[in-house]
Design brief:
single chain; about 375 residues; alpha/beta; Arc Repressor Mutant, subunit A; Aspartate Aminotransferase, domain 2; 2 domains; eight-stranded mixed β-sheet; 13 helices; globular
Length: about 375
Amino acid sequence: MRKKPEYINIYEKLRSDITEGLYPKGARLPSKRVAADRFGVSVITIQHALELLEDEGYVSPRERSGYYVVYNEKAVFGSTAPVYRENYSYRSERQDDSPAARSVQTRGNVKARPDSAGRETFPISVYSRAVRKVLSDRPQDIMVKSPGKGCLELRSAISGYLARSRGIKASPEQIVIGSGAEYLYGLIVDMLGRYRSYGIEDPSYGKILQVYTLNGAHTELLPLRSDGISSAALSASSAGVLHITPYRSYPSGISASASKKREYLSFARSRGAWIIEDDFESEYTPSTKPEETLFQIDGGVRVIYVNSFTMTVSPGERIAYMVLPELLLKVYEERLGFCSCSVPTLNQLVLAEIISAGDFERHINRVRRKIRKAGDLS
């Protein structure tokens, strides 16, 4: 395993000091020179760590004064909120398929989320090589029906990738493969139930609202502010499910701050709600480290993580996945265990080969370097 850069270690130490209250909101962090002496590194290394903390909303710089903590975990839903416990049973859930529960809210036309157009596309030569390898090495396997959650090879490859690159620890059993994120949204409604209210960012990617309403779910539109959903709207909401895009929500481009992410989690724990973390596009962050996910922060207790390969491989590669909390595994099996995987076995095995061979991560890192370079030149 590659050793972490020193500035990442320092970033993680300072982040921990902030979230544990050693540096409360409004506190000034040690100067860069003092911190450099403390950690035995250069001032430039400290600067890199502070820039990451600033990017994620933990600190804010003040001219000629230093960096001050802006992180506030106790906003609206404090860290002392009780953790909701629920005893899940398929038969005990209240079903509401009345016309009122199926009312459909309509909005004006909203542009579709951008795909990988304009990005450096995944190398066709690498993709072709993976196809040839699968056809050569596993000709009989591509004719076999995929398991309901998807091929074990792909789910295992995604599990390893998430652990290496995103800090998400999830077993292959927690991963479900589907033909696009919209398909997975529909599965989530079937799994969690239509009687719940689904809170959606306003504005947001148009198909999110369309899929939920088409599946008979009641929705609430929650207005976005500069750092995420309005705290007042969140507090007044009756949502039992919160669908959010923490990184560059489309079309607003708003990213949730570190404080706002904790607020979402506190909301979920206190209400017994579930969070759907739609992590579209975050692999292409210009930051020198991966974006912090709610699933990672929460330890996978109340968060369903959703991502796809539309941006990172190709819009034509209709493969997406969700990572379920362990609490929902039994519910999924009871309600959706009969479902067949909607992605052909060949496509799954080719993508598994690309990820396992390291080609996927090399592509991501190459694009991110170009994004950072373009930002430096602008």
